[in-house]
Amino acid sequence: MELLLLSLCLVHLSGSTFADRNDRGQVERSPVIRVKEGNDVTLPCYIKNKNIVSERFEWKKDGKKDVYLCERDSLSGQDKEFKGRVSHFASELKNGNASIKIRDTKVPDSGDYTCHLGNDQIFSVRLVVDKVAKLQIEKDTKVGSDGVLLQCLVSNASPDFQLNISWFDSSGNKLTEQINNTQSGKIYILKTTVKKSDDYRCVATMDELSHQVDDYVTVKDEDLKNTSGSNIPLIIGLVALAVLALIIVVLVIYILRIRKRI
């Protein structure tokens, strides 16, 4: 229990603990650490009241990939996908801290990590790297429409979570909302039509992952002029074409009658 509590101090994550071996040398359970793609993460490995400066320790992913091998403060035997992104806390080795830091995490980094310290000590942790949703806004000032159409497109969301997309005006009033259960590779679109100039904000939230992305778009008076009333020139043009066609028909009939008389 003391080991568990000390480990919790190393990682500022609610509910994160790490497992050790049982009497038969088996890893009993692995905690889960979640991180957003692109962020750094620390994976804990700690021995109470022990100086491990001169000891060898190594980290592996999924039981086979060499994440980090440290022996007398030298590094070797590292898989290419982790090169340049993993480091340990050299000044903390004297306190038994064999934790590592992975920088710029990527979705493929997700997996089960084990820390081997000496011959007997093994710590295990599961890392989950969540995709960071991408948000894009499109503004459509279509001729003859009743206002400016705004579209909020959300992609790259981690699957199997709840995604909430909302449109707001500059005063914080919610214009429309859409709630989805995310699926891999799917793009989610929330539309709204606005009829006044303002700054409009689209927000995409995944509460379970503490993720939120947002963006703004400005609708100007010129945008609204291009929609409401913009069909008048088209109507005038159509009427002019109709009148011209009628004149041509009348002239043709008149010429034909004159030729018959001759």
Element layout with pairings:
Layout: H1 2-10, E1 32-36, E2 41-43, E3 57-61, E4 65-71, E5 74-75, E6 86-88, E7 100-102, E8 111-117, E9 121-130, E10 134-140, E11 148-155, E12 162-168, E13 174-181, E14 188-194, E15 198-206, E16 211-219, H2 221-225, H3 232-261
Parallel strand pairs: 1-9
Antiparallel strand pairs: 2-7, 3-4, 3-8, 4-5, 6-7, 8-9, 10-11, 11-14, 12-13, 12-15, 15-16
Transmembrane segments: 234-256
InterPro entries: Ig-like_dom, Ig-like_dom_sf, Ig-like_fold, Ig_sub, Ig_V-set, T-cell_Activation_Regulation
Keywords: Cell membrane, Disulfide bond, Glycoprotein, Immunoglobulin domain, Membrane, Receptor, Signal, Transmembrane, Transmembrane helix
> What is the string of helix and strand elements?
HEEEEEEEEEEEEEEEEHH
The strand line-up of the biggest sheet is 1-9-8-3-4-5
Proportion in helices: 10-25%
Radius of gyration: 33 Å
Major beta sheet, specifics? 6 strands, mixed
Report the top-level CATH class of the largest domain: Mainly Beta
Keywords: Cell membrane, Disulfide bond, Glycoprotein, Immunoglobulin domain, Membrane, Receptor, Signal, Transmembrane, Transmembrane helix
Transmembrane segments: 234-256
Subcellular location: Cell membrane
GO cellular component, one term: external side of plasma membrane
Task: State the gist of this model.
This protein has about 260 residues and is an alpha+beta fold. The protein has three helices and 16 strands. It folds into two domains: about 1-130, Immunoglobulins (Immunoglobulin-like, Sandwich), CATH 2.60.40; about 135-225, Macroglobulin (MG2) domain (Immunoglobulin-like), CATH 2.60.40.
